[in-house]
Amino acid sequence: MRRLLTFSGAPQASMAARAITKGLWGLRRGPRYATAASIQPTQLQADDVSDTLMNKPLEKPDFFRVSELFSLKDLFEARVHLGHKKGCRHRLMEPYLYGCRLDQDIIDLDQTVEHLQQALNFTAHVAYRGGVILFISRQRQFVHLVENTAQGCGEYAHTRYWQGGLLTNAPVQYGPGVRLPDLIVFLSTLNNVFQPHVGIRDAAKMNIPTVGVVDSNCNPSLITYPVPGNDDTPVAMEMYCRLFKMTINRAKDTRRRMELLHGLAAPPTDAS
Amino acid sequence: MAGSRLERFGTVFTRVRDLMRTGVIKPSEKPIWYDVFEAFPPKKAPLYVKPHTRPYTKKQDAVPEIFYREDEVRAKFYVQYGTGPRPLDLSRTKSVSTCQRFVDKYTELRGHNVLEESALFEETGKALLTEGIMLRRRGVLPVSAESRDPVLELKLMDMLAEQQSVGDDSEERRETST
Questions:
Q1: Which of A174, A236, B5, B105 is the most exposed place for a label (fewest CB within 10 A)?
Q2: Which positions in chain B touch A206 (Cβ < 8 Å)?
Q3: Do residues A224 and B11 make contact, with C-beta atoms less than 8 angstroms apart?
Q4: What residue of B is the nearest CA neighbor of A177?
Q5: C-alpha to C-alpha distance for B63 and A228, rounded to whole angstroms
Q6: How far apart are the first and last CA of chain A?
Q7: What is the dihedral of CA A105, A184, B39, A129, to 10 degrees?
Q8: Does residue A15 contact residue A174 with C-beta atoms inside 8 Å?
Q9: DSSP bridge partners of A183
Q10: What is the enclosing helix (H) or strand (E) of A97?
């Protein structure tokens, strides 16, 4: 019998930078103890409700309707299809390229649309289940944008120097019982010296799925949901940040509404 | 919490699935993203790909070059007329550049009448002139004898000599008058 996918029983404290304003504390269910036989029916009912809450979104291919948030024309106008020059091309990005116009790689936007839809869908589902999402980008010009995006959707961002043991040595660096992120979103997979970000390898080591915007000079192999696209133009980055923020907020609002519908969470005090 | 730190073997999902099957990860500790990944797997499994160590030269380019038929017209246009006096403003998506107008008119005329290329080129230039777009040829400036400014012909020494003689004349006149 599947239990709820929350941290019942495990005394996991929050991550160092975790804000209480995240608002999901109330949804954490503590351990349940069945004392008498009369409690069984209501407990089963509660379990069924929570099961439907968790499983119902998985039945539809696009429960959160993320494909409505963007179109191919929007991607084109945000210059997502522009890659780097032919000499900078990574050999693993060749399947995602449409062609090469006067030595500049052009990314295939048909594939980008599909990949972006999958990535946003995955992000939405993880946010719906109360997962911790971490945004990473090592591009100095977009540090402020990424941090504001993370703040806007109530998630986390890491845009500074990545210390070696951040994920792999977290209990020592942050204290015992740290909760690691459940999804890492890379808005640029390279670091300042044009090498793959250490976070990609570390996330794969700690079994954390990743979503990443891969440009034509990046390595997409270890990223769970790569999104081939331009990561250097401000217009494109603003578009990605806006899309991620909208999906995460949408997912969290859906979750709150479903909980209210099923009467699991207490309604907010100012609603009455 | 138990885990497997071998990022080069299998994917994140296969490792967690196998750990759960063997019982290392309890069902209560199942990660949040596990069911979502199962329901919506990515197109390509995120396996680690070893980098090629030997210098490997590909026989044919896997990424095709993008060229259009109109590129020939564009190349000739730029060779003859250059980029134009004003810089190209790409921020507005709807704006049509002079070159694009030329290419559209060229294809239109080619559809109407069957002329050979250079004649068609001239025709397009004339058609655009009637619409009001000035096309200035680049690099060729007509230099003729009459058009040269006569000021450039004057030499400095002659000018000084003239000034001196004028000065002598005025002195003589003043002497005679007083």
A1: B5
A2: 3, 5
A3: yes
A4: B1
A5: 15
A6: 37
A7: -140
A8: yes
A9: A133
A10: strand A97-101
For chains A and B, CB pairs below 8 A equal: 106
Question: How many angstroms separate the CA atoms of A189 and A210, rounded?
Answer: 10
Q: Is B39 on the interface with A (CB under 8 A)?
A: yes
Contacting residues of B for A92, CB less than 8 Å apart = 49
Decide: residue A42, CB within 10 A, 0-12 exposed, 13-18 middle, 19+ buried: exposed
Residue A154: Cβ-neighbour burial (10 angstroms; 0-12, 13-18, 19+): middle
The identity of residue A248, as a single letter, is I
Number of H helices, E strands in chain B: 6, 0
Distance between CA B128 and CA B102 in Å, rounded? 7
- Judge whether residue B99 has pLDDT over 80: yes
Whether B176 has its CB under 8 Å from any CB of chain A: the answer is no
Closest to A6 (Cα-Cα) out of B103, B30, B43: B30
Distance in angstroms (rounded) separating the CA atoms of residues A54 and B133: 64
How would residue A219 be classed by pLDDT, with cut points 50, 70 and 90?
A: very high
pLDDT of residue A42: 66
Question: Å from A6 to nearest chain B CA?
Answer: 8
Indicate yes or no: CB of A92 within 8 angstroms of CB of B33: no
To the nearest whole angstrom, how far is the Cα of B45 from the nearest Cα of chain A?
7
Pairing of strands A183-186, A210-214: parallel
Neighbours of A222 (CB within 10 A): 23
- The two tokens of residue A218 are 């990046």
CA A13, A16, A17, A20 dihedral sign is: positive
How far lies B69's CA from each of B19, B63, B104, B123, in Å? 57, 19, 12, 19
pTM of this structure? 0.78
CA distance linking residue A124 with residue A130, whole number of Å: 10
Decide if A157 contacts A199 (C-beta within 8 A). no
Q: Would you state the pLDDT for residue A30?
A: 47
Give me A202's structure tokens: 């570390």
Question: What is the share, in percent, of chain B residues with pLDDT greater than 70?
Answer: 83
Decide if A206 contacts A180 (C-beta within 8 A): yes
